[in-house]
Amino acid sequence: MTARRRWAGLIAAAVTAGLLLSGCAGAENAPKGDSAAGGEPVKGGTVHMLQNADFSYLDPARGWDGGVNAFYRLLYRGLTMQAAGDAKDPNAIVPDLAAALGKPSSDGLTWTYKLKDGLKFDNGKPITSAEVKFGISRAWDPQIGIGSPYLKNVIAAPADYQGPYVSGDLPTIETPDAKTVVFHLKAPFPEFDNVVAQANAVPFPVGTGGGDQFIHTVIASGPYTLDKYTPGSTIRLVRNKNWDPKTDDVRKAYPDVWQFDMGIDAATIEERLIAGQGGDVDAIGGKISGAALPRIQTPALKDRTIKAPAFCTTYMSMNTTKAPFTDVRVRQAVNWALDRTTVQNASGGNQLADAATTIIPPAVNGHKDYDLYPAKDGKPDTAKAKQLLAAAGLPDGFQFTLDIRSQPAMQAQAEAVQESLAKVGITVNLNVIDTSIYYETIATPSQQHDAAITGWCPDWASSASTFIPPLFAGAMITDKGNQNLAQLNDPKVNARIAEIQAMTDTDKANKAWGELDEQIMKLAPIAPLVFENGIFLRGSNIAGYHPSTNMTDLTIIGLKDPSKG
């Protein structure tokens, strides 16, 4: 996801500045165990995934987005991983190849993991600490290592290290024996278990995977391996006979075969899932579009429909370095005047979006439910907004320029903002920027205007440590690639971010992120707009389906009856 790449590129600066990330836990995800999920799967059969485009890469050192990360869970295993999609806390990080989560040293600079017994690749060769180290060190290769940057940003590799194919051994990952892996970090990083849960932190046989070897082939450590790959058309996965389910507490591996049917028009995918004929009873796809919502209101289709909560926040930033947004009263007035219901309707209505009053979405651990700018009788409190504007010396309102993407949905949201604020005398001039250069433009302070509509998603949802800091830490403001679009540089906020990031007590940190969310919104550097949900439709024979707008867990999906379809 775009937000992931934009924030992760800044994490190295955070480590250098001593901003230490911490873990949180406790948020609930989509409803579990209801009829829409399809019940309990049984082993056997073929599950089809219908999709418009191919995955970015088969090689996990190269790929990094929600869709391909879900795919990788079928093929590859790491030391840790995100919990199952039907878990009580699906955002949690749990052991995978490792027997337990990592053990940090007293100074937080060293993390140690012990491997389980009986681990093998699909070729039958054992997975030891050497293979784990080698696979992880591929992240430093200048051509191959273009996926998640967290390993490179957190592990203390030599400055000139360029991966195993160029530089050889990585001395800051030690393997004292076949079952032990020891990592040396640049700085304490309490959420290191999340780092080794990234898609590129997986083992490979020593010496494999150089150049383009893994462009069309794989060496699997998960429950499936590659049987057939026709780029842009078909990926067929079959069981990895050397995967031992006794070593894997998360992946259920119900189907005998996973088939990814690609290159299908999005509208055609929706038509096929709605019709539910033939082999499509065994199929799943991506999110249903707003245009298709009226067609899935029949009882039979409702039974196959699941609404998944948002992991991202759509918001309007206000540049706190430009008048009149330098005045907190003006920013608060904007929040009071916004009709979030109108923005919600512009975003597809209450099925596709929920009005946002907080920074952190409910699905992300660390969320605190509050509303500092509540509506009055279902309408924005325009009297309160006008009172604040008058106190700021702007009784007749003002005008500002709002940057938006040249994309219909965002333009509809912007027009809803425009309509709301006009009622208190604020004129919003829309500056439409081509999507291809939008993020680059608004992330360059010298080019951004007074405000911008954008969205943010966390790199991991087990805490808000990749949500709050990139958007509001003063140390994160840069001349290019800046994600603190409001350019908030508040000493109290900065100090509290650093304090929370150093916490090792996950429950304490979780509560603190939610409290800081509310503290920041008293300063009103942004106006939260909506949390955009996802509507998913499963085939009638699909079971164990718990879709997510973050990453749908394919490893727990199967069929009700493998003889159908």
Descriptors:
565 residues; six-stranded mixed sheet; 21 strands; five-stranded mixed sheet
Going by helix content, strand content and strand pairing, the class is alpha+beta
Cα shape: globular
- Roughly how many Å is the radius of gyration? 24 Å
Strand elements, count: 21
Percentage beta strand:
15-25%
The profile of the biggest β sheet is: 6 strands, mixed
Could you give the order of strands across the largest sheet?
14-18-13-17-15-16
Share of helical residues: 10-25%
**C-alpha end-to-end distance:** 33 Å
- Give the low-confidence spans: 1-33
- The tally of helices reads 16
Averaged pLDDT: 92
Helix/strand layout:
Blueprint: H1 2-8, H2 11-16, E1 46-50, H3 66-75, E2 80-82, E3 93-95, E4 103-104, E5 110-114, H4 129-137, H5 150-154, E6 173-177, E7 180-184, H6 192-195, E8 224-230, E9 234-239, E10 257-261, H7 266-275, E11 283-284, H8 299-302, E12 305-308, E13 313-318, H9 328-337, H10 340-346, E14 353-355, H11 382-391, E15 399-405, H12 408-422, E16 427-433, H13 435-442, E17 451-456, H14 468-472, H15 491-501, H16 506-523, E18 526-532, E19 534-537, E20 542-543, E21 558-559
Parallel strand pairs: 1-10, 1-11, 15-16, 15-17
Antiparallel strand pairs: 2-3, 4-5, 5-7, 6-7, 8-9, 9-10, 12-19, 13-17, 13-18, 14-18, 20-21
Helix pairs in contact: 9-11, 10-12, 15-16
